[in-house]
Design a protein that fits this description.
Largest interface: A-B, 54 and 36 residues
Bound molecules: flavin-adenine dinucleotide
Largest sheet of chain B: 2 strands, antiparallel
CATH topology of the largest domain in chain A: FAD/NAD(P)-binding domain
Oligomer: heterodimer
Shape of chain B: globular
CATH superfamily of the largest domain in chain A: FAD/NAD(P)-binding domain
Number of domains of chain B: 1
Helix content of chain A: 25-40%
Number of strands of chain A: 19
Radius of gyration of chain B: 13 Å
CATH topology of chain B: Alpha-Beta Plaits
Chain lengths: 426, 89
């Protein structure tokens, strides 16, 4: 068997960005993907944010299978019967506001790009072990077949079985991950555009906290695709286990909420999916490089979750590019030892990848505060209810109304503490 | 809508080789039922105080692998090409 310069495990955003960047520089690259096709195993919210795609693939939106580009962003607090929303819209929102995609199509497009640049994409093949040479990783195994390479790049996602095997990190624990479940619900495009107030290819990204997770850390989401909606719930896995609440039940609650029901009414569910998301950021960072191996994307825990932001794909791609640049340099020097590959971590630190994860390093801890999902939505919705209601009783000023709503629910001291934590974390 | 109705909409190619094995002797000594709640596909069901397991509807998320701290679950990926194939994702 020929020896490859590099083998990439996984054809998600991280793996495709790595493979594309290396292949374009003339390296011999093999990508192994366990799905029948790239994207077959992948689901998400979701929208792609930031300029990373544009950097790698200028003008990508002209040819990539993009569902819609985000021109409306809402954040809503839900109680069982009420909702209170911030609704941001812009008619000059550009690509930096995100574009909505479905993974099965999009990952295939990304992989095609890597293939056109010269990488070999081999699907239906699961790398299940490593080849070693004198202690250094020297390729991967697929069952009894061996695939030798100078370097292996792990891009095998949140449920990586190989990261711990390679000794790059411990297995994730219940507190390190959230679980996402979602349905794709089909509706005619005109109905979607009507219901969400969109024109042409405009899209909406809606996020929810509160009763959609019965007060557990997490939230709901709704994204408009071209002629379907992505409707889902994300919830901390530890809370699911401790509170004995299933994410699948939360999703049903969410779909039945009066606000959501109006959006999805008469739609037809066509798919149900689930996936993990690493959420503890810098707290669980791996060893990024060892002799003959690098780790990227979700497998490395490179996801930014702040409650308002959930971004992983752009982090995955940027880490993939950094890994590729490191390998290109290592090949020139003919050195694939830890010392040479450590360049990778330096690149991650110099880019937004580790900079932003560090800037928001306290967010995961802040987001475990159950008052965010319970007390505050209750409090603000009940205050809004009082402010907008006129039942004939003599009304008080809004500030007094708000203070009245707080009574028995939260102390001024707790409120100030949470506000301080929010300022420090977000 | 029930989970099993939703799973029926998905495209699976079920492998004859089982990719998750559950050591039920360990489950008998455990009353945590974390697996039951963390599985989004209801692969783990509590019947007469026993966990019964089926892998056919598995969405391969890996939650149970993380959730079970009794070492009762042995988890590998289905062989390449088998298992779930999302059409939308
Ligand atoms: C519910 C949910 C909502 C999200 N919303 C957003 C969002 O709106 N915006 C955003 O930016 N991010 C979002 N994310 C996060 C985003 O999906 C991930 O960060 C991103 O997909 C990570 O890319 P990756 O390439 O590292 O891993 P993945 O996309 O998981 O790709 C890993 C690939 O490796 C393959 N693989 C795994 N093991 C092997 C093996 N042994 N051999 C061969 N192949 C293997 C898999 O089949 C898969 O194709 C969301 C995630 C979830 C779960």
């Amino acid at each position: 068997m020929d020896k490859f310069d590099a083998i990439v495990v996984g054809a998600g955003p991280a793996g495709c960005a790595t493979a594309y960047t290396m292949a374009r520089e003339g390296l011999q690259v093999l990508v192994l993907e366990r799905g029948k096709y790239p994207g077959a195993k992948n689901m998400w919210g979701g929208a792609f944010f930031g300029p990373v795609m544009e950097e790698i693939f200028p003008d990508f939106w002209k040819e990539a299978p993009v569902e819609r580009s985000v021109s409306r962003h809402t954040i809503s607090m839900l109680t069982e019967h009420e909702s209170l929303s911030f609704d941001f819209r812009s008619d000059r929102a550009d690509k930096n506001h995100g574009f909505i995609i479905l993974r099965a199509k999009f990952d295939q497009w990304l992989a095609k790009k890597a293939e056109q640049a010269g990488a070999i994409i081999a699907t239906s093949l699961e790398a299940d072990d490593f080849l070693y040479e004198g202690g250094a990783v020297a390729g991967v195994k697929v069952g009894s077949e061996s695939f030798p390479a100078s370097v292996v790049i792990l891009a095998d996602g949140a449920n990586s079985l190989l990261a711990a095997k390679a000794g790059l990190r411990k297995e994730f624990g219940l507190h390190d991950v959230k679980q996402g479940v979602k349905e794709v619900i089909q509706l005619p495009r005109e109905v979607i555009e009507d219901r969400f107030g969109l024109q042409d290819d405009e899209g909406a990204a809606l996020e929810f906290i509160g009763s959609c997770t019965r007060g557990l850390p997490g939230g709901g989401f709704l994204y408009t695709n071209h002629d379907s909606l992505s409707v889902g719930v994300v919830v901390q896995l530890a809370a699911v286990g401790e509170q004995k609440v299933k994410a699948s039940d939360l999703l049903e609650d969410f779909k039945n909420h009066p606000l959501i029901q109006r959006y999805i009414s008469k739609g037809k569910t066509v798919e149900y999916s689930a996936h993990l998301i690493p959420v503890t950021g810098v707290k669980i960072l791996p060893t990024f490089a060892k002799d003959g191996i690098l780790i990227t994307g979700d497998a490395a825990g490179l996801v930014l979750g702040t409650g308002l932001i959930l971004e992983g794909a752009n982090f995955a791609m940027a880490s993939g590019v950094a890994a590729a640049q490191t390998v290109i340099k290592a090949k020139k020097a003919g050195d694939f030892t830890t010392k040479a590959l450590d360049h990778y971590e330096g690149l991650l630190k110099s880019r937004f990848v580790l900079k932003e994860l560090n800037a928001f390093k306290r967010a995961p801890e802040f987001l475990e505060n159950e008052r965010i999902y319970n007390t505050y939505p209750e409090l603000l919705c009940s205050a809004a209810m009082k402010m907008f209601e006129n039942d004939g009783t003599v009304r008080e000023g809004s500030f007094k109304t708000l203070m009245g709503s707080m009574k028995g629910k939260i102390s001024i001291w707790q409120l100030m503490k949470d506000a301080w934590m929010a300022k420090e974390s977000l | 809508m029930k989970v099993e109705e939703k799973l029926a909409l998905n495209k699976f190619e079920i492998d004859k080789e089982v990719h998750i094995t559950v050591d039920e002797s360990k489950c008998r000594e455990c009353n945590m039922t974390v697996c039951v709640y963390t599985c989004p596909a209801d692969c783990y069901v509590l019947r007469d105080q026993h966990i019964t397991f089926s892998y056919e509807g598995c969405l391969e998320c890996g939650s149970c692998r993380i959730a079970c701290d009794k070492g009762a679950i042995k988890w590998v990926n289905p062989r390449g090409g088998f298992g779930i194939s999302y059409q939308f994702g």
